[in-house]
Amino acid sequence: MTEVTKVNRPVYRNISIPQILFAYRLPPAGILSILHRVSGALLFLALPFLLWLFEKSLTSEMSFKIFTDVTGHWYVKLVLLALSWGYLHHFCAGIRHLLMDTHMGLEKAQARTSALIVFAVSIVLTLAVAAKLFGVF
């Protein structure tokens, strides 16, 4: 009789978030995909705060005064800047995904280029919002 030899096969286990973030080297499209999900979750979780700010800005002159007092603090401006980045990044990545749904940019090199373009555009737009938010112009 022949003897059965055991083949050493790789063992796949669940991986943790630190392994994803630090051990694996993701391509730009992978990082973009993760940040697209993070920005969507950030926008969803911040929706009550944003709706409250919107309500305070429109109800009356007194509530607009409350709005300007709240948004005048530097730490609230940082939160608003983070939410602006989330919106701008999610919007730009969403346009990229819509283009990919039409089968444009699906090759590896094109996906890498479009991911880098989304990063560049969203960062430039966020810097413009930051300049306006902190009173540069």
Q: CATH homologous superfamily - what is it?
A: Fumarate reductase/succinate dehydrogenase, transmembrane subunit
Q: Which oligomeric form is depicted?
A: single chain
User: Helix share of residues?
Assistant: over 70%
CATH topology: 3 helical TM bundles of succinate and fumarate reductases
**Could you say how many structural domains there are in total?**
1
Amount of beta strand: under 5%
- Computed over alpha carbons, the radius of gyration is 22 Å
Pattern of helices and strands: HHHHHH
Classified by CATH, the class is Mainly Alpha
Mean pLDDT: 90
Query: What is the number of strand segments?
Result: 0
Shape: elongated
Low-confidence stretches: none
Broad structural category: mainly alpha
CATH-derived architecture: Up-down Bundle
The N- and C-terminal alpha carbons lie at a distance of 85 Å
Largest sheet: none
Walk me through the structure.
This protein is mainly α and 137 residues long. The chain is 74% helix and 0% strand. It has a single domain, classed as 3 helical TM bundles of succinate and fumarate reductases.
